[in-house]
Amino acid sequence: MVLKSPFKIIWLFLLTLPYSQENIWKNAEDFIQSYFEPEEFHSANYVQRIRIIPNGSDENWQQKIQLENDSFQMGWRMDKSSSTEFPQNRKGYLFVQANQYNIIIGNARIQTGNSLLFGSDYNSIKSFGNLLSPGKIRWKILPYLGSETSSNPTGIFILKKTNRTNYYMGVETSAVSSGVYFTGKSLDGMLVGVLPKEGSFALSLSYHLKNNFVQFSGETAIKSNKVAQYFQLFSNSKDIIWLGQFRLLPNSWETVSGRPATGFGKTSNETGVLISVRKKINRFTVYGWADMYWELQNEFSLPVRSGDDFLTGFLYRKKGVVTLELKARRKTIVELFNDNSIYNLQLNKKYYYTFTMKNFIVLKWKSIHLIPSNDSGQLIQLQSLKYQKGKWSGVVGAVYFNTDNWDSRLYLIEPGLKGEFRIQPYFLEGISIYSKVNWKINDSNSLSFRYSTQRKKEISEKWKPEMGLQLDIVF
Predict the structure, then answer these.
(1) Model confidence over 372-413: pLDDT tens digits?
(2) Residue 254 contacts by C-beta under 8 Å, 6 or more apart in sequence?
(3) Model pLDDT for residues 20-76, shown as the tens digit of each residue
(4) Residue 221 contacts residue 201 (beta carbons within 8 Å)
(5) Is 218 exposed, middle or buried (0-12, 13-18, 19+ CB in 10 A)?
(6) What is the rounded distance in angstroms from the CA atom of residue 94 to the CA atom of residue 329?
(7) How close are the terminal C-alpha atoms of the chain, in Å?
(8) What is the C-alpha separation between 63 and 108, in angstroms, rounded?
(9) I need a surface site. Which of 20, 86, 182, 437 has the fewest CB within 10 A?
(10) Is residue 30 helix, strand or coil?
(11) Are 402 and 354 in contact (CB under 8 A)?
């Protein structure tokens, strides 16, 4: 089935309304796009989302339905491409409340402690706006309709909550797990155990000590005679926010689901230290971090690799008038370089500079410079602020980019459909134009549409349009 006109798109949308495909962190060289769905919460009795994304001669469909009342919730998600016979992703759940117990049957999201056993697929992104996030120990067990590549578990999960203690037990085809979480005035504690069908028993202890000055948290996990560790010490003051973290991830460490919350996206064979700070003085905010890591061992018995990530930033914000932000960042990876079968350690550095101004428009300039290759790249983004008139709202923007190659690519976050997070890589030289429009049909229902097109000079290609259409029904 091929959509050849806007009228056919709308006609198929209204009559068939099936599925969509959503792959997380796709090979950007092939697809030049990546996005995931942030977690969403609904308070309505019925929610349905239908999304269609044409892709050349193919269409990707998604249908998501959630139904709930006072005693139960149900959810279903299906993703399908018109070029395939069967759906790529089918997930669902039933959530039942009975006295003090909550029961999840089907797909769930489990996140405990610092994610050494159970984690999120997306919690490795540092942000100056939430510097204390790595210090939090999490107890999150919820129904979840994840994307095709998400690693959320599937089974039966029984939860019980009392005044200060939470309990859970999960039974999957591949493992049995259970945990308890105690919250107190000055101490929170968490114990989680996993017994897999194949492999070794895993045990995790998380803790959070609180007082009026500083807080201390961490997680210690044991699996296959290996110990993984997180320690965090962070501030308890709003005047200046700071955090220090130590992490140890043994070689070949594997989580049950998700990934540990590291700053470099690694899940094993790493020891690292993170220090971050943010200070606000009237309308000015100064922030920064230093993140350093080292491999524990090299698989070929060669010198170990290491790396660091240093960032400093300055923010000025006058509410309702203007926002100015300037950031400088350096990322270094020390790795082995093969020179005629002779291995030498080489420092590969990336320097990033970003300037952002928000007034009646958003103006952003980004630059990257690589050493020792001396490759570089720049981009300029112009985007409108959110425009709203009556039931209509939207944004429009354009990007000019010019980089030497794929290695010197730059990223931007473009507006996506509701529940969609789009991270776009830009490389070589070209122009990209994008827009998103939302029509609020009534207080509960909305129809949204996004359109973007891009052209690159070096490839001498035509404009490459991409669009997405989504209907949200809530009642």
Answers:
(1) 999 999 999 999 988 899 999 999 999 999 999 999 999 998
(2) 223, 267, 268
(3) 323 323 333 222 233 344 445 445 577 888 888 887 667 788 888 888 888 889 999
(4) no
(5) buried
(6) 45
(7) 32
(8) 18
(9) 86
(10) helix
(11) no
